[in-house]
Amino acid sequence: MIEKQTRRSFLITSVAVAGGITASTAFQQAAKPTATMPERVLGRTGVNLPIFGLGGAGQTPLSWYDRERDAEAIIQKALELGIRYFDTAASYGPSEDYLGKVLPPHRAKLFLASKTDKRDYDGAWRELERSLKRLNTDYLDLWQLHHVSFASELDTIFSPSGAITALEEAIQQKLVRFAGITGHHDPEIIAEGLRRYPFHATLIPVNAADQHHPRPFLPVVMPIAQAKNVGVIAMKVPAYGRLFKPGGLAGMQQALGYSMSQPGVHCCVIAAEDITQLEHNVKVARAFQPLSQQELNAIAQQTANIWEDTTFFRAWT
d(Cα 36, Cα 193) in Å, to the nearest integer? Predict the structure, then answer.
C-alpha cells in the first residue's frame, strides 16, 4: 500500500510541476463553454456531455508525429467550438502529448478519456502513469480497456494479476473517475465484459453499415448496456469516410444522425483531418435531431452494398 500511495503522490507532484494544474472534483459544477450541441447524460456516470467529442486516432494530425502544429490547432479549435470530450489512447502515437500541450488550462471543464491495451496489472499501471504525464493531468475522467477482442483477453484482465485490479486501484486513488471497455472486433466479447464487471462506459462501433455485418454490435451489446445503465459511446461513425463512397451515404448528417438516433447511445467520438472538417462535424452535431425509424431504415439500406468495405475495422484485433 505504501508503494501505491507513493506512486500516486509522485504522479500528482510531477504532473503539477510540469503542467501547472490541479485536479478538479467539480466537473459538473464547472462553467460550461458556450455551445449549442445537444447534450446527454453518459449513463450512470451522471456526467452531462455534448453528443460530439473529438477523437484522437485515425489518419489525422493528432496521431501523426510530424503534424504537431496542425494537431494543436485542431485541439484549440475544438475547445473554441464547445467540445468538452476528448478521446485518446496510449497507443495513438503522439496524441496524448499533443492534447497535453493544449488542454491543461481548461482541464476542470473537460471530460478526458484515454485507454490501455495492456491486459496485466503491471503493464496497465505503467501505461496509466505514462498517459497522465503525457496528458499533463493528475486524473482521467475515463480510463478504458482498449480494443478487447478475445475471451482469453477477458480471462487475463479479470485474473488476480489482471488489468482490472490496476483500474480499480486507480479509481480508489482518484487517478481515474470512471472505468470503460472498448472493442470493434466481436460484440460478444464486449457484452461478456459488461456482464463480468460494472463498467461505467463502453466505446463500440455504431454506424449505418454495422447491421449488415453477420455479428452486429447494437443488438448484442445494447440490451446489457441499457439494463446496467452503461454509458454508450459511438465510434467508427463514418467508418473513416468510407460510408461516403459512391452508392453510400450522402454525408455526415446521415452518418451522425444514424448513430446518435440509436436508443441508448449517449455520444460519439469522431476524429478530424483538419479544422474545416471539424467545424463541419460540429455544425452537423449542433443541428442534430433524432431520426424516425423510417429514416434510419432508409439510411441503413444505402449501405447494404458497401457494408463489407465499411466494416473493415472488424478484422482489427
Answer: 35
